[in-house]
What we know:
Elements: E1 7-13, E2 22-28, E3 31-37, H1 50-53, E4 69-70, E5 79-80, H2 83-101, E6 108-110, H3 116-130, E7 135-137, H4 138-141, H5 144-154, H6 164-168, E8 171-175, H7 179-182, H8 184-196, E9 201-205, H9 211-214, E10 218-220, H10 227-240, H11 246-252, H12 256-262, H13 268-275, H14 279-291, E11 295-299, H15 301-304, H16 309-323, E12 332-335, H17 342-345, H18 375-382, H19 392-402
Parallel strand pairs: 6-7, 8-9, 8-11, 9-10, 11-12
Antiparallel strand pairs: 1-2, 2-3, 4-5
The structure holds iron/sulfur cluster (SF4).
Amino acid sequence: MPASTTRAETRSVCCYCGVGCGIVIDHDAGRIVGVRGDPDHPANFGRLCTKGSTLYLTAVRETRALYPELRTTRDGARKRVAWDLALDHAAARFARTIREHGPDSVALYVSGQLLTEDYYVFNKLARGLIGTNNVDSNSRLCMSSAVAGYKQTLGADAPPACYADIDQTGCLLIAGSNTAYAHPVVFRRIEDAKAANPDLKIIVVDPRRTDTAAMADLHLPILPGTDLVLFNAMLHVLLWEGLTDTRFIREHCDGFEAVREAVREITPALASQVCGVPADDIVLAARWFGAAQASLSMWCQGLNQSIHGTHNTAALVHLHLATGHIGRPGAGRSRSPASPTRWAGARSAAWPICCRRIAIRPIPTIAPQWPACGASTICRRRRARPRSNCSRRSAAVKSRRCGLRAPTRPSRCRNSP
Length: 417
Ligand code: SF4
């Protein structure tokens, strides 16, 4: 049987999750007949998960909207119309509304599943032609607290680290994400990085023992909602053990003293009581994060969809700013969104998609987040219990030097309850 002469392939992006895998769509006479991973795409290098590889099954002709339908009255039935008529009608209604009520009388709400180029065009239409900022997508809503956290700490909701950083990092902190299920192709990449570099330390912060947690070197199964206390305790340890990058802080951060003061009492012992994980594990996590040549964090909705998701985000960014693990190969923070082009959808199309390295603003503000969260109430109540029992004199000297309470362990503390 002769091969079809109408058969062709088109490169695109899987629309399911935030990994954004490149795909090659095989089609024949207008019908999609298959989908495979794009071997040249830097997100997946040909790999696809089950969802992506069965994508073509969802794009059957019978279930697709193939033509426009229009109704002229609210309660009337929709009727099939020609494309020209539908487009003219929509444009005329838009133009009349803008003419009569101004550009902010209209809004565009688009999908997180659109491609970056689509977002670019929609943003041009809204901001450049119509003159309104009323363009948004579902993908911003799902990570709005993350946006606020980034703006509080970095001064901008800037682009994140990239997948290539996974191959170069020495410590990977995954928080609030079951990457194995939610972003499977990235998880494969993490497994590859671990196989290539057995010294890579993987820390997973998740109340559940997920498949992602099962492969971690250190799993911190914190009580739900206590992320902020954990991160602040890790910062406490970083400060106590001198694992911060004082030069980076001096040159790039503003307000660090306020952060130091905010975490002064948040010892691992205290955090252990709040988070329900051993203080030793908190210390170990901080040491791995601080001592690595480059540390990377990845997180998902488990972190930022919280009543204090903004503070969770900020506290995690504080770890990166305090250690200088940001803006260089293998170091940085990256949220794992649910939509393939969340970055493009959630902000102006003016952001270049290739903006891999963040030029840290000269003076990003590190603002103390601790007092603003509900968990602080718990910790204030429990404050002042832990006291050092080991080498008190040297601890006192060190305490004066770094301005913190010693990160004691409750089990070895004479003053512990
Ligand atoms: S990992 Fe995500 S983007 Fe990649 S194929 Fe699977 S669903 Fe699609």
